C-alpha cells in the first residue's frame, strides 16, 4: 500500500477512527495497530509477512536471553544469533544474486566459466529498514542501554508499525517502545501538525518529485545522445527528485504517526543547506546516518584509535552504507565517494584547525553530492562512467528540453519547493512543528491549496524511490 495511493487515503482514516474509539485501553490500540500494520505490509505480498514475523519472534526472544545472561560471553553469543540470523536473511534476499554474479564475472575473467548461480528471489519491501531496527534493539540490550521488552504485542508493533515500516525513519527502541507501552491521549496539536506534514509530504512527492522524474527518466534512459548541459540539468533534477521523494515519504510517515499520538525522530533537516559533507550527513536520512554512526562507525573504533584508523572507519562505514542501499557496485562507489570526501574534510579541518567552510562550502558540498548521485541513479557502472565523462568533457551546448510541459512543470515546482524549504529553514522552526503556527482556518486553506496543486500537477502514481532499498 502506497502513501500516495487512494487505498491509503481510505485506510488511514478508518484505522484512525477505530484507534481513538479504543483510547481507554492502549493495549487494544496496540493490537489494532499490529493487525493494521500487517494488513498494510501484506498489501504488497502477504507471503513476506512470514519474514517480518520471524524477525520479530527472533529478536523478542534473543533480547530477553541477552538480558538474562550472567556472563558476557553468553550475552555475546545471543547477540551473534541476532546478527547472523537477521543479516543472513538480508544477505540471501538482497545480496545473494549480486555476489553470485560478481563471482561468475570474476571467474570468467580468468577463463573459468561457471554455471548460473543466481536464484529467482523477490526483494521483500522494507527488509533493510526493519532489519536495522530489530538489530539496534538487540545491540542496545547488549550494551545495557535499554531493557528487553516482555510485552510481545508492543514489541511486534514496534517492529511493524505501519507509518515507518517500509522506508523508515529507522526508529530506536529507546524512543518508540516506551510510547507504545504507555497510554496515548488525543493531542490536537499533534493532530494539526500531523495533517500539515502529511500534505507537505504529498506535495513533495506527487507534485515535485514525480514531475522532476519525468524529465530525469527521459534523459537517463538515453544518456548516450545527450550533451553535458542536458545531463547536468537532469542530474540536478534528480538530486532534488530523490530529496523531495524521500523527505516527502518521511513527512507522511512522521505525520501519520503523530495522528496516532507517536513522535518519530526527524529524518531530514534541509540537507542541501549544508556547508560541508559532514553537515550534509547530519541532515540527510538522519535515522540511517546516525544508525551507521552508532552501530557501525563507533563499533569499528570511531576516532579513538588514531588518525589512520579513523579514516579507515569512515570509509568502511560509507562503503557499507552504500551497499545497504542496493546490491550494485554503483552504490558501493557512491558510498566510497562520500567516505573519501568525509575523510578529506576531517583531515582538512584538523590541519587548518577549523570547524566548517565559508559560504563557498555550500557549492562544494552540492557538487560532491551531485557527482555521487550519478552513480546512484545510473543503471550500471558503464552508464555512470559515461555520464561522468560527458559532464567533465564540458560539452555544454544547447539544452535538450524534450517534453516542454514536463520540463516547465518540473522547473516551476522545483522552485516552489526550494522556496518553501528556504522559508521554513529561515524560520528556525522545524517542519515537524511548523503546522502549529497556523490556525485551523489557515491550515484548512493551506491544505486546500495543496490538494488543488496535487490535482493540477498530478503525475503517474509511482513507488517511492527508497522502496527499492
From TrEMBL:
Transmembrane segments: 7-26, 46-62, 78-97, 117-139, 331-349, 361-379, 399-422, 443-461
Subcellular localization(s) per the UniProt record: Cell membrane
Keyword list, A-Z: Acyltransferase, Cell membrane, Membrane, Transferase, Transmembrane, Transmembrane helix
A Pfam family the protein falls into: MBOAT
Main localization, broad class: membrane
Membrane topology: Multi-pass membrane protein
InterPro entries per record: Ac/AlaTfrase_AlgI/DltB, AlgI, MB_O-acyltransferase, MBOAT_fam
Family affiliation: Belongs to the membrane-bound acyltransferase family.
PANTHER family registered for this protein in UniProt: ACYLTRANSFERASE, TEICHOIC ACID D-ALANYLTRANSFERASE
Name of the protein in question: MBOAT family protein
Species whose genome carries this gene: Winogradskyella marina
